[in-house]
C-alpha cells in the first residue's frame, strides 16, 4: 500500500468522527471487568446460597432469624445481595446501551440505577435487621 | 424500498450531501441456530433472575419483620402458583449461571471455536434443565419432609 519504512499511525475511525469527539469514552474496559469480576465472585456465593436454601426449606421464622443472626451468614448474605444487585446494574446498563437510543438513553440508565440501588439497599437493610434486631432481642431476654 | 427501516438510515456526508447508511441484515435473514437463541436467552434470563431476586428480597424482609409477615410469604411459597414462579426464577438463575460460566471460558480463550460452541450449546441446555429439575425437586422435597416432621 504505502512505503512500510515511512512512519504512520493506523486509525480505524474517520477524521470527522475524531474531530467530533464521539465514540469510545474509555470506560468500557472497566465496565467489562467489573461485570466479570462480580460474576466470578457470585459463583461461590450462589453455591453457598443454594446450600442455605436446602437448610432453610420449610423453616419457621424463628429458625430463619437464628440462621440470619450468625455473623458468617450475615456477611455472606450481605455480599450476595450487594454483588447481585451490582451485577444486575452492570447487566441492565448494557441492555439499555443496546436498545435505548437518543435522548432517552441517559434518563433510562439513571432510572434503572436508582431502582436497582434502592432494591440493593432494601435487601442490605433487611439482612442487617434480621441479623442485629434478632440478637439484641435475645440479649434483652437474657438480661 | 425493500425495508421500512431504510427511511431511518439516511445520513449526511461531511460535505452535506445525503447518503444511505449501510444496514446490517436483521433476524429474518438468518436461519435459526441454537447459539443465537442461547445468546438472547442469557440476556432474558439475566433480566428474569434480577426480577426474581427483587421478589426474593420480600422473603428476607419478611423474615426480618417477624413471624406474621413470614407466614404471609410462606403462603406464597406454599402455593402451587408461587412455586411455579420460584421454579421459573430457579431456571433463569441456573441458565444465567451456566451461560455466564461459558462466557468466562470464552473470555479466557477456551471453547470459542465455532465447532466447540455448537457442541457445547446442547450440553448447556441439558445441564440447565437437569440442574433446575434437581434443585426444584430437592428443595421442595426437603421443605415437605421438614414440615411433616414438625407436624407429627
UniProtKB/TrEMBL annotation, chain A:
Which Pfam families does the annotation name? Answer: Sdh_cyt (PF01127)
- Membrane disposition: Multi-pass membrane protein
Gene3D superfamilies reported in the protein's UniProt record: Fumarate reductase/succinate dehydrogenase, transmembrane subunit (1.20.1300.10)
Tell me the domain of life.
Answer: Bacteria
Main location class: membrane
Pathway connected to this protein? Carbohydrate metabolism; tricarboxylic acid cycle
What the protein does comes down to: Membrane-anchoring subunit of succinate dehydrogenase (SDH).
| Subunit structure and binding partners | Part of an enzyme complex containing four subunits: a flavoprotein, an iron-sulfur protein, plus two membrane-anchoring proteins, SdhC and SdhD.
| Official protein name in the record | Succinate dehydrogenase hydrophobic membrane anchor subunit
* Biological source species: Komagataeibacter saccharivorans
Automatic annotation (TrEMBL), chain B:
Superkingdom of this protein's organism: Bacteria
Q: Which cofactor does it need?
A: heme
GO biological process entries: tricarboxylic acid cycle
Which is one Pfam family of this protein? Sdh_cyt
GO cellular component terms listed in the entry, alphabetical order: membrane
Cell compartment(s), UniProt:
Membrane
Q: How does it sit in the membrane?
A: Multi-pass membrane protein
Q: Which GO terms describe its molecular function?
A: electron transfer activity; metal ion binding
Q: Which UniProt keywords apply?
A: Heme, Iron, Membrane, Metal-binding, Transmembrane, Transmembrane helix
Q: What does this protein do?
A: Membrane-anchoring subunit of succinate dehydrogenase (SDH).
Subunit structure comment from the entry: Part of an enzyme complex containing four subunits: a flavoprotein, an iron-sulfur protein, plus two membrane-anchoring proteins, SdhC and SdhD. The complex can form homotrimers.
Which family is annotated?
Answer: Belongs to the cytochrome b560 family.
Instruction: Report what the protein is called.
Output: Succinate dehydrogenase cytochrome b556 subunit
